[in-house]
What does this fold into?
Amino acid sequence: MMKSNMNIEIIDNLKRNFREVYGRHYEGAYFAPGRVNLIGEHTDYNGGHVFPCALPAGTYGMIAPRGDQQLRFYSLNLPESGVVSVELGDLSPGRTEAWTAYPEGVFWAAQKEGFAIPFGADILFAGDLPGGSGLSSSASIEVLTGLMIQQTYSLEDLTMERIARIGQMGENTYCGMQCGIMDQFASAMGKEGHAIYLDTDTMEYEYVPLDLKERELIITNSKVKHSLVSSAYNDRRRECATALADIQKIPAFAEVKSLCSINEEAFEQYKEQILDPVCRARAEHVVKEEARTEKAVSALRKNDIETFGKLMNESHISLRDRYQVSCPEIDFLTELAWQIPGVLGSRITGGGFGGCTISIVETESAEAFMGRIRGEYEKRFHIRPEFYRAWPWEGAKKLDV
Ligand code: GLA
It folds into this structure.
């Protein structure tokens, strides 16, 4: 990931291909970033806090309005899918399993939410995020589509926060992935140099400077993508809902709205009320992850990166053992990272079941860190990992090109 995030090569490719694919000029060019979550995992659909930041890499798109009702989509990353065309009136959940479910879902959700989309458009996408790696390439497509809709149809009421919501709604309904709001929010609302401390219950948020001084964030891509990610993710959601329903049977907790509003003490006292041990373990992760996230953010505010790193490690252990969203490759990467001098913390990031780890590493140890991980991971799994030296970037925007 380059320091100025404008990927000129992608922009030039988009310009050239727009003409070739659609035989006309684009009207607007846009970018929406991916994200990495530092801590607060699987808390966003449990009314808790998350702490992601947007990345310099993401998805670029160009659009030109049409005079009819057709939407046409094409991705330079997936040329084998060709141009996908659909009438605005034919958009409906379950219509397609192709990648276009992501942008289609956003058009569908925007209309459902009452935003007028009176004519179609030709849209071309290309991205520099590794797809399926847990860095939210899908959320970046959704937010990008939302921003294109806002601009192309002059929808002033479609704020960036609503774009995030509509992106999530599209993914939940049109793609069947019951994700929370974190990824879309980070992509829409990112701020350079800052992570976002978001309360998913109230949707209040705060930008916290991520000044790591002589350390940096390194993302390690395991290149492992497990199948059935969305069904396993939806299972976790259901298990959390069951745990909450059991807790709500206790009269004093009847009004409790979410797992994250239960504190650790109360959880310890009443956890046996959650009958199924699997659901109990899931809830224990959520309750403790929420507490960890609060502690981590206050440590960061005091420049206590050591404590932040330790909490990242604890988060990983909990995701591995209680929430069971890790996998052997990711465990290998994190557990090896913990042994490498200069590593302050390392954990799985995002939804899980493969994807990436995020580590905080002393800058002077960064090369040694990547060299050792590359060597040992390749030896053990015969996969060459990828590394991205990441820094917090700004949210989706119109490009001046
Ligand atoms: C995925 C989802 C998010 C969030 C994370 C886990 O990235 O899209 O909403 O639930 O998993 O923290």
Notes: The radius of gyration is 21 Å. The longest helix spans residues 277-301. DSSP finds eleven helices and 13 strands in the chain.
